[in-house]
Amino acid sequence: MSGTLDALPPLREVIAAHALSARKALGQNFLLDLNLTAKIARRAGDLSACDVLEIGPGPGGLTRGLLSEGARHVVAIERDARCLPALAEISEAAPGRLTVIEGDALEVDPRPHLTPPVRIVANLPYNVGTELLVRWLTPPVWPPFWTSLTLMFQKEVAERIVAQPGSKTYGRLAILAQWRANPRIVLEIPARAFTPPPKVTSAVVHLERLDAPRYPADPAVLSRVVALAFGQRRKMLRASLKPLGPHLEDMLTAVGIAPTERAEQVSLEAWCALARKVAGETE
Ligand code: SAM
Question: Distance between CA 10 and CA 269 in Å, rounded?
Fold first, then answer.
């Protein structure tokens, strides 16, 4: 399957041939080791019966990994037009299996180009990655168009996504991710693996979506309650959640949360129970 892909030149040569000097403003830290990009692709699960949406392919290291690991079809969105000729060479080596869209992933809707099941895989600038993760986890209807996300983050952000109650990194991102998916850190990547190396260690997080949220709750109410609580995470909940109204302490007690607890001690299940209570549903 990867016969012609194997004949493509090493990424260092591709970068030199197309003068792809890394641009800081675009968060360009490239992965040039094809063994590593294939390993990341394998962490996304079985790709053979899936379309893969890749964001930010750059010179195409991860794209080559996804194709050589058997992705049925890759749709890649890249903002930097300088990368397009390098990506066109990959397209030629894998006929009919790579569609490249030039544009900003925050603006482009890739869904018309994708056939389910869809897995999303990306090594993106971290600010764009977090923004997209939140969007992918909060669509108007659930389940969303994707079945899994495999994304590179700063290790510190990856730890926030998988954090458990009681830990300092437990907060809105953990609740959002764990409510509707199973997130796991599947790979740590040292800074030296990138060209140029970033300042921090990175980690790949794999999230398999759940078909329904882990516990029922209205997304807008859950989001409001959690935002209030973690907005003042050092305060007791009876203070931080005061805007929820005069019955706050009764509602907390009714769902088994002590009003003197702090946000970081409360489990996902209890947040959802509180969101239901706030929404006026009977327990
Ligand atoms: N995937 C490549 C790799 O692993 O070597 C490149 C990774 S580099 C960290 C991030 C890539 O995302 C760059 O190619 C950059 O041009 C692209 N990018 C940055 N912002 C983007 C956006 N908003 N939409 C699409 N691509 C973007």
Answer: 49
